[in-house]
Amino acid sequence: MIGEPAGLWQRVDPAQLLLLRELAEHGSVTAVARATTRTPSAVSQQLKVLQRRVGVPLVERAGRGVRLTDAGRALAGIATGVATALAVAEADWEGYRGGAGGTVRLAVFHSAGELLVPGLLDRLAAAPQITLETHDEDVSQDDFAALTADYDVVVAHRSDDVVPPARPQVEVRLLLREPLDVALPLDHPLARRDRVSPQDVIGEQWIAPPAEFPIDRVLTAIAARAGAPVRVVRRTTHLPLMEKLVSHGHGVALLPRHTTRERTAGRLALVPLADLRAGRIVEALMRPDKAARRAVRTVVDALVAEAAAYPG
């Protein structure tokens, strides 16, 4: 029994083991091939070699594709620890050599990008050995964690009045809490108020993002507090469009305070909500092995420092 684990690891190629983990996260050989810049046939061949080496079935047919067996899922889970250990070793070696370079791929939703990326780039000027790639990704709040399979860091948001979604094997760094205010046309009767209640605004025509986005979940809370449904007349994920529609008198909206205030001074009124905690949590999500990289840690530390400028 004592010699058995050593025998296993003598037979297993870590690169093949990591492919199994990618299959667990991406769900198909084609997606793994795309994520790892291989051909599907090359991925399938490596998985077959791994299966022969461990001596038990790791994948099985499922319709036109494949799925992991129980043994495959167990080994894929072990692969996360292996990947993290390798990343820690690489980070220690980088530290010994005095460097923390390389490319870091950052996925960020649009309004957080406007708020954080310019200052982040200013801060990273002190680390010219790091190349930062930025990618726009705006999905429903429960889908951000899956993006960590494709990016080093994913800036995500969620409403602060719900329990965080299950995010196994994902590291989380809090960046900021951004309040959500009611955006009103400047000539609206409520525009000069210090605060408005859900009952004050429940009868308005609302411009909102799609369901399951953090702002929409706060609208649901407004409806529950006011005891009446919200009338949504238009939906869009594009906050500048929401701002322009409000400023032209085509409805009201819930908008993030810091992002909107920098863009819309003199064009619309932002009024805080009374009797309801309305905001969104902005976080950085990473796989543990990617979080171990020194370059990734440098980028995330700079994100945290930049976000500290915005009070919640």
Automatic annotation (TrEMBL):
- Pfam families in the record, alphabetically? HTH_1 (PF00126), LysR_substrate (PF03466)
Coiled coil ranges: none
Q: Show which residues constitute the signal peptide.
A: none
Q: Is this entry keyworded Flavoprotein? A: no
Domain spans labelled HTH lysR-type: 12-69
- Keyword Transcription applies: yes
Keywords per UniProt: DNA-binding, Transcription, Transcription regulation
Judging by the UniProt lineage, the source's domain of life is Bacteria
What CDD domains does the annotation carry? HTH_ARSR, PBP2_LTTR_substrate
Query: Which protein family is it in?
Result: Belongs to the LysR transcriptional regulatory family.
Q: What is this protein called?
A: LysR family transcriptional regulator
Organism source for this protein? Answer: Blastococcus carthaginiensis
